[in-house]
Each structure stands twice: as C-alpha cells, then as structure tokens.
Amino acid sequence: MDAPLIRAHSLSKHYPMGQTLVRALDGVDVDIPPRSFTVVMGPSGSGKSTLLHLIGGLDRPTSGLLEVNGQRLEALDENHLALFRRQTVGFIFQAFNLIQSMSALENVAFPMQFAGVASAERRRRALALLERVGLAERAHHRPNELSGGEQQRVAIARALVNDPLLILADEPTGNLDTASGAGIMQLLFELYRSGRTVLVVTHDPRMTRFATHRLFLLDGKIVSESEYQAAVMQPAL
Ligand SMILES: Nc1ncnc2c1ncn2[C@@H]1O[C@H](COP(=O)(O)OP(=O)(O)OP(=O)(O)O)[C@@H](O)[C@H]1O
Ligand SMILES: [Mg+2]
Q: Taking CB atoms and a 6 Å cutoff, what residues make up the pocket around ligand 1?
C-alpha cells in the first residue's frame, strides 16, 4: 500500500463574516492515494472548491494538517507555496480561464516562461501538448474561435506544461454539453491511467463511473455515501 499523496487531518477553512463564522471546510480527514482518480461531490456551498484550493496551495487552511506529496502545505511560506503549485499541480477550472488575446498555442506556452524555458522549446512543447489533447490543427485559433470543449482541452494542455503529479479540476465539464463533457472526462481519465493523481469536482453523477475513489461533502464535512444520498434526496422546502 502506497503512502497517501494527499493527507488531510482536521482540515478547516473558516471565514469570519460579521457576527458569524462560515465553516467552508470543517474538520476534514482524508487520505488520497497516489495514481488514483477521485471524484468530489456535494451540493453548492458544501466546500468542494475550498478543498481543491487548499490541496492545490491556492489558499491556506485556518487549521489542521495538510500534506501533499510529502510537503506540509500549512508550513510553507508564499515562495515555497508558489513553487509547490508550479512543480506539483495542474489546475483546470470550470470557466477555462484562457487569455483571450492569445492563440491556443500561446496560452499553453505561456506558463513555461516562468519556468525559464526558451521560446522555441516552449512552442515545441506546447504544440506536442495540443496534439495530445487532439487540437494540433487549432493551435493558432484564439479562444473565441474555439468551441467550449476545445477551450477546455486547451486549458488541460496548459495544466500539463510542467508535467504535474496532481491534476485538480473544479467542475471542468460544468460549462459544456454532454458530449464535450464526456470527452473532457475521458482525457482526465487518460491522465490518471498515465500515472497522475486526478481530483475532479463534479455535479454530474455519470462522471463517478471514472472514479477509483469518491468523496462526499455536506456543509464542509466529509460524509458517507448513504448520508449524502439521504441528504440530497430530501425534497426541497
Ligand atoms: N472568501 C470567502 N469568504 C466567505 N465565505 C466564503 C468564501 N469563499 C467561500 N465561502 C463560503 O464557503 C462555503 C463553501 O464554498 P465553496 O466555494 O467551497 O463551495 P462549493 O462546494 O465549491 O460550491 P459550488 O458547487 O457552488 O461551486 C460557501 O458557503 C461559501 O459561501
Ligand atoms: Mg465550487
């Protein structure tokens, strides 16, 4: 049995809002093994994005322990956290977050600048990644000249530039039709099969068929599948 790639213990993220405290995450314990494909499910506001942001080092916990790839994230300073993000994590967002004035190729090549990769090498690698997501012939299109599914594939290519161990995807199919969404999940599944660890937030129960592990969140807490089913099946008031 491999040691967990991600280990969270009593992990909490609280936001003081006036007189109240929003418990976005509230005492989460979770172990995620390397080379797994975990689907994170939960209603709106249950803490899914918060959990992903903490694991990806985009945000810091209020309390608790969080270890990713042997690094205690809560102990890292800003510089080391930035380094951790760049070396270990690839992020994919619901809204693609591409730069509109850049072509697909330039969007993918862009982050490599910060890793000090020479310009010709950046283009070569970016093109290879676009090929990998099936978009080589769209390399010179701008985001507004691509379909939603194609834009998300560009975003996936961009997330792979530093060959991250961990892929975090926050509702990557949320803005896509069913067929494009299935293509994106297939691509994430291939990344898992190639040895990466993938964590995907999704509202789509069909996506769970890809999962090796499933996490259910309710009100900032991890719950069992049966507790989750019981809660989400409640008729709306
Ligand atoms: N910066 C913030 N300040 C205050 N409260 C916040 C902040 N960010 C998130 N929250 C609250 O924390 C809770 C969890 O938010 P989070 O974004 O993790 O939910 P989610 O499960 O991703 O929801 P969705 O499915 O709608 O994306 C929500 O109630 C939200 O309002
Ligand atoms: Mg969210």
A: 15, 17, 22, 24, 42, 44-50
Instruction: Please report, for the domain that includes residue 172, its CATH number.
Output: 3.40.50.300
How many angstroms separate the alpha carbon of residue 15 from the centre of ligand 1?
10
Percent of the chain residues topping a pLDDT of 70 = 98
Residue 60 lies in a domain: yes
Greatest mean pLDDT among 48-57, 91-100, 223-232:
48-57
In the predicted structure, residue 167 carries a pLDDT above the cut 70: yes
8 A C-beta contact, residue 221 and residue 192:
no
Q: Which atom of ligand 1 is nearest to the CA of 51?
A: 18
Give yes or no for residue 1 having a pLDDT over 80: no
CA 47 to chain centre: 14
Residue 78 is part of which domain span?
6-98+164-232
Kindly state whether residue 157 falls inside one of the protein's structural domains: no
Q: How many domains does the chain have?
A: 1
Within a domain: residue 40?
yes
Q: Is the full-model pTM beyond 0.70?
A: yes
Q: Which residue, judged by its Cα, is nearest atom 16 of ligand 1?
A: 47
At 236 the pLDDT is: 59
CA of 102 relative to ligand 2 center, distance in Å: 27
